[in-house]
Amino acid sequence: MRLIGMTMAAVVAWVLFASAQTAAPAKQRQHLMVVVSKGLPGIVLFDADTDEEICRQTMKPAPHEAAFSRDGRTLYVPVYSPANIGQPGPDEHEIHFIRTSDCSIEATLDTGEYLRPHFPEVGPSGNLYVTAELKESILVVDPKTRKIASTIPTGSNATHFFAMTSDEKKMFTSNVSAATVSVLDIPGKKLITSVSTGSGNQRMTVSPDDRWFVTSIGQGRKMSFFRTSDYQLDFDIELDGSPFVARFSPDGKSVYNMGNAPRGATPAGIRVWKADVASKKVVATSSDNLGTGTGGIQVSPFNGRVYISAYSGQVSVLDPDTLKVVKQFPTPATPDGLFFGRVR
Length: 344
Fold this sequence. Notes:
With 344 residues, the protein is mainly β. The protein has one helix spanning 8-23; strands at residues 31-37, 42-47, 52-58, 67-68, 74-79, 94-99, 105-110, 117-122, 128-132, 137-142, 147-153, 159-164, 170-175, 180-185, 190-196, 202-206, 212-217, 222-227, 233-238, 242-248, 254-260, 270-276, 281-285, 294-299, 306-310, 314-318, 325-330, 335-342.
């Protein structure tokens, strides 16, 4: 642009305007989805309204899961290990604090002796809870100071996942190979009891009304519903295949589970079931090719659709009623956990 003939005041005003335009930050999306990729290794952030990639960040191998802060402006990503639970391998010890506007790492917490931090979740208080299975602990992290504030004993070195009640008072942990669930008193920071699940269990979820905590019993081909009131088994829902991870619909009337299809089934690989909680029956089953290698499953709070990730490298979006594929899109190698966040 020509500046000849402009007054000095006009020139200064133009320069300030041009600088402001150049320095303007990228627009902060309001609805977000993150996919954690073991093979990247790192995270890919998507616009949850369009499923379009916003940005990505790499880190040490291998993160598995993530959680959004209450305001959606920070993503918490523990770095676990390239090894699977119970297997020897590198024992990582970092939790990254990632800005969701541009995927930059703002800070990193070294968890020290609390090795293999795995699953994170944020409570209503804003506190961040993270499993540290090799130390038989849940870490309580203060997001403001970015330090470990305290720990809660789990009584198991196989505590891989957990879910907690909406009042942030009780936590239920999936102790995978130990075939138990630990019940924790969060304010008291103590182990209340351990509940046997009969055989190995995977993942954990709590119903929206806090009535049940639910885990997947792969070998038993069932989801087990335990009462949060007395920690006793209430009922099972049998599935045609090996369930892995469950999530409730927002109204709590349905529960979705992703696992593996039974041997010899067509298509092979991942299977998704929708069960009606009242009747305790499966009311829909996926019949589309959803890939192989179970990652994560979530119900989008923004469009109500079911999202699943497959290690084979894609995210599938399913109709919540029929479980038919609405769309699929690729993600970097070995996508694992996926989560939604709202920027406030």
